[in-house]
Amino acid sequence: MSPRTRTRAPDETRQKILLAAFEEIHRHGFRATSLDTIAARAGVTKGALYHHFPEKAALGYAVVREVVRAPLLAAYLEPLRQGADDPVRAIQDALRRRADDFEHGGIELGCPLNNLAQEMSPLDEGFRTCIAAVLEAWTDEFADGLARAQAQGLLRPEVDPRRVAAFIVAAIEGSFGTAKNARSVELLRSNLELLADYLETLRPVDA
Q1: Tag placement on the chain: N or C end, fewer CB within 10 Å?
Q2: What is the pLDDT of residues 51-99, one digit of tens each?
Q3: Phi, psi of 137 (to 5 degrees)
Q4: Measuring CA to CA, how many Å separate 157 from each of 146, 154, 169, 199?
Q5: CA-to-CA distance for 192 and 176, rounded, in angstroms?
Q6: Residues contacting 195, CB < 8 A, separation 6+
Q7: What's the angle, vertex CA 109, arms to CA 107 and CA 111, rounded to 5?
């Protein structure tokens, strides 16, 4: 076996565990998911799981940081990261497209970050901190985009980009909660469309 193969195998095992844990947690919640089930789903031994994650909480934190965070942020922030000419429009477009991601799979399982925030943040400081870091990064990038728009004259000067960004993030996550309960992608679409419309009201009258 080559050194490269020996190095890659543990990484692949860890990734299998993380993905299996994410799928089980997203479907059943963190507390209801057992390590035995995760190991079986990943096709690894319990010993291999403990080698990478010495306790269940550590695995849960890693799921937030390494599985949930990147795709969630990319769904909303990638247009901003690509240097959009109109950051407000980039955010609006992301909001209007987001419901499409759930058109075929359904909304019944909800947003994994929101699910964990509701279930675990009141009970576990580690989870609360991990989730807060994702929400803060999300808010920071929205705020930076809105501040750029303001500097370009695309947002009214009296608007507070940070407060608007925090409101939009909170409203998105709340919309996922209500859409999950209603089992309605159309409710999610309607809510996010209204958020996009709200951003339009923050533009200068002559923009």
Answers
A1: N
A2: 999 999 999 999 999 999 999 999 999 888 887 799 999 999 999 999 9
A3: -60, -40
A4: 11, 9, 21, 14
A5: 10
A6: 95, 168, 171, 172, 175
A7: 80
Q: Give me the residue label for tokens 């002559």.
A: 206
Q: Are 155 and 146 in contact (CB under 8 A)?
A: yes
- pTM here is 0.88
Would you state the structure tokens that stand for residue 71, as one six-digit string? 């795709």
Cα torsion angle, 156, 162, 164, 168, sign: positive
Of residues 108, 95, 110, 69, the one with CA closest to residue 164 = 95
Separation CA 128–CA 10 (nearest Å): 28
Q: CA angle at residue 39 from 122 to 129, to 5 degrees?
A: 25
